[in-house]
């Protein structure tokens, strides 16, 4: 995505303005562009992650960050779903939004479970239990 266009879209998003596309050809082109941009930007992620994430405690903050962003987006999407329901928008749109919200919540739970596996379990010795 050209830099100027990305900056314009970022500025518009900051003010809550979103561009709507009137036909599926435009939507498909945008989806393709989003996918290509994401994969291009992610090209170095595996190499960086391999070098950086040497143990579970270095992985933990990364997964926490992702979970936080996903959760915020899912909650935003829930608001979109509520608005679609309240405005009586198409049943197909509402069904798709419900599916996306459900899957988003499932993803946040999976990420939370992943984070839990990164926390070392330190059990207090029986002699000091309850003294803290």
Shape: globular
Q: From N to C, what is the helix and strand string? A: HHHHH
Spans where pLDDT lies below 50 across 5 or more residues: 127-132
Biggest sheet, in brief?
none
Give the structural class. Answer: mainly alpha
Mean pLDDT across all amino acids: 85
Supply the number of helical segments: 5
Helix content: over 70%
Our measurement of the CA-to-CA distance between the termini, rounded to an integer number of angstroms, reads 55 Å
Q: What percentage of the residues does DSSP assign to strands (E)?
A: under 5%
Query: Total strand count, please?
Result: 0
Radius of gyration: 21 Å
Write structural notes for this entry.
The structure is a single chain. The protein is globular and about 50 Å long. By secondary structure, it is mainly alpha-helical. The chain has 5 helices and no strands. Helix 4 (56-86) runs antiparallel to helix 5 (91-118). It starts with a helix and ends in a 14-residue tail after the last helix. Residues 127-132 have low confidence and may be disordered. The longest helix has 31 residues, at 56-86.
Task: Give the helices and strands, then pairings.
Blueprint: H1 3-14, H2 24-41, H3 45-52, H4 56-86, H5 91-118
Any descriptors?
132 residues, 5 helices
Write a short abstract of this structure.
The protein is mostly helical.
């Amino acid at each position: 995505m050209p830099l100027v266009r990305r900056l314009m879209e970022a500025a518009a998003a900051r003010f809550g303005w979103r561009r709507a596309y009137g036909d599926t050809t435009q939507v498909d082109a945008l989806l393709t562009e989003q996918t290509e941009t994401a994969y291009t930007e992610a090209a170095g992620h595996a190499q960086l992650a391999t070098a950086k994430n040497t143990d579970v405690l270095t992985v933990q903050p990364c997964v926490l960050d992702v979970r936080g962003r996903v959760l915020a987006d899912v909650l935003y999407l829930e608001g979109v779903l509520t608005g679609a329901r309240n405005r009586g928008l198409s049943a197909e749109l509402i069904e798709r939004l419900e599916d996306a919200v459900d899957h988003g919540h499932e993803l946040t739970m999976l990420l939370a479970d992943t984070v839990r596996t990164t926390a070392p379990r330190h059990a207090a010795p029986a002699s000091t239990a309850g003294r803290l």
